[in-house]
Amino acid sequence: MKRMGTTEITSLVMTTALLSMAACSSGTPTNPGATTSCVTDGGTSACAGPDASVKPIVLPGINPMAIAPTIDGTRVLVSFAGAPGASSGGLSSRECNSGIQAISAATKQSIGTAPTETASVSGDAGSTVTVGWYSSIAVASATKGYAIANDSSFSGSAIYRFDPMSGANVTAVTLSPARNGCTMGELAIDADGGRLFATCSFFSGGFQIGVLSVNTTTDTETASEFITTSKNPQSVAVFPADGGTLLIAMTDNSIGSLGRVTLGASLGTLSLATSTIGLDPVVRVVSSGTTTHAIVLNRNGMSGGTGTNSVQFLDPANNFETAKITGTTNNKDFSTGQGSNPVDVVAGSASEIWVSLLNVPDGGLIAMNTTSGAVTKSIDLVSFGCSGNLPRANAMAVVGDRIWVTLQNSNASFSGYGLGKIVLLNPTTGTLEAAP
After folding, report:
1. CB 65 within 8 A of CB 186
2. Which of 99, 86, 151 is nearest to 120 (CA)?
3. 116 to each of 19, 128, 160, 422, how far by Cα in Å?
4. Which range of residues forms the domain containing residue 347?
5. In the 3-class helix/strand/coil scheme, how is the chain assigned residue by residue?
6. Does 210 fall in a domain?
7. What pLDDT is recorded for position 132?
8. Which of 138, 147, 212, 338 is buried deepest, with most CB atoms within 10 A?
9. In a domain? residue 372
């Protein structure tokens, strides 16, 4: 699946237990431990990397889009957006190939019991959402997580609370009727876990766009806290210092803007940074050593690929304007290469971050010095593509002392996919390790 923009915002859902792939023949989930789905990978080949001994984790789903560990770090949740392909049993192609899996951090194998999944769920103040594809997830505590279910036709969404360890206790969040038809994308939890934020965009005019706020005690949207934005919001993140600041990356598909909202007993007023960001931005907050970084990844953009392809550091001490390289007036906005498409970032060490590149050479990883922007390490993942597909490094998560990197495993035109994969990165040595 190609990287999604404002008009293709990603989301995810949990229903009972931990969502697994829907079986195309019967409309019921497969065993979470099985490496089968509606689109196969030409068998069960793991497609090793440059070193034949470095085998990835082969996932039982198509097109992994998000990854998040549980609070105790024993499980890693992976969501799948599905892909165009086979459909049967009344399920669309996305329903057929999408879902969520829990992977054991110890054994690197899928775990959990097969849940039940319905083709339609309640959402958008009583409307029906035909569950079609999944992505962003927020784990708030050991017993509470949140996820989004998006309609196959991009015409609505629902938010669910669930138990991230068992997948049980699924409850639909109550949303304002004004959200009917809203397609929600990324989720973010504030510093004390009391509020959940979700981006809200519409595919037709005349609707309110912005960021909605959910009270996590009542699992109900606080309609009075809806943050109206002038551009479509693509991404949200919470910078935790000084009570917290909600950062909103938004775009009108020609230029991006960064919004800031101070968090507290009541929400502050939305203000905009004066610094320019790319036309296809996402915002991330990562901790590297004792420093917490606010970063905008300026992606490659949708059709035409006119994005700036860079890692842009923000300065929390200067209202999250673009940071300056120490001792200079130069911006800390570092290119990752034309067309590289940086899509995610995590901390590697006290002075280093790792960035996943969806397109270079056909999915790779780079380590970047947080002061100078110098690329200190790089990993070519091209040999992890299977059956003529490209690996396409996507979402990442730090799990213990390793970085888990999802691979989309798609063809050049994003029209065909094999089973998703995860490679394990040792950030200290800059090398990949074999899954058990």
Report:
1. no
2. 151
3. 8, 18, 15, 25
4. 57-433
5. CCCCCCCCCCCCCCCCCCCCCECCCCCCECCCCCCCCCCCCCCCCCCCCCCCCCCCEEEEEECEEEEEECCCCCEEEEEEECCCCCCCCCCCHHHHHEEEEEEECCCCCEECCCCCCCCEEEECCCEEEEEEECCCEEECCCCCEEEEEEECCCCCEEEEEECCCCCCCCEECECCHHHCCCEEEEEEECCCCCEEEEEEECCCCCCCCEEEEEECCCCEECHHHCEECCCEEEEEEEECHHHCEEEEEEECCCCEEEEEEECCCCCCCCEECCCCECCCEEEEEEEECCEEEEEEEECCCCCCCCCCCEEEEEEHHHCCEECECCCCCCECEEECCCCCCEEEEEEEECCEEEEEECCCCCCEEEEEECCCCCEEEEEECHHHCCCCCECCEEEEEEECCEEEEEECCECCCCCCECEEEEEEEECCCCEEECCC
6. yes
7. 55
8. 147
9. yes
| β-strand partners of 128 | 122
* CA dihedral sign, ordered 103, 108, 109, 111: negative
Backbone angles phi, psi at 107, to 5 degrees: -95, -15
**Any domain includes 44:** no
**Residue 233: beta bridge partners?**
250
Four-CA torsion 300, 394, 256, 200, nearest 10 degrees: 130
Angle at 413 between CA 182 and CA 353, to 5 degrees: 75
Between CA 74 and CA 104 the distance in angstroms is: 6
Check residue 361 and give its pLDDT. 65
Which residues contact residue 406 at a Cβ distance below 8 angstroms, ignoring those fewer than 6 apart?
64, 65, 67, 78, 393, 394, 395, 396, 420, 421, 422
The tokens describing 118, both together, are 């319905």
The residue count for the chain? 436
- Which residue is it, tokens 């957006």? 81
Stretches where the chain sits below pLDDT 70 are: 1-52, 83-99, 112-135, 152-154, 203-207, 302-306, 361-362
CATH number of the domain within which 82 lies? 2.130.10.10
The pLDDT value recorded for residue 37 is 39
Residue 302 counted as domain residue: yes
Q: What is the residue type of 364?
A: G
Can you tell me which residue has the tokens 């380590």? 367
**In this predicted structure, what is the pLDDT of residue 410?**
87
The answer to whether the peptide bond before residue 436 is cis (omega within 30 degrees of 0) is no
Amino acid at 168: A
Cα dihedral 36→42→48→53 (10° resolution)? 70
| CA-based R_g, the chain, Å | 20
Number of structural domains, the chain? 1
CA nearest neighbour of 417 among 59, 22, 51: 59
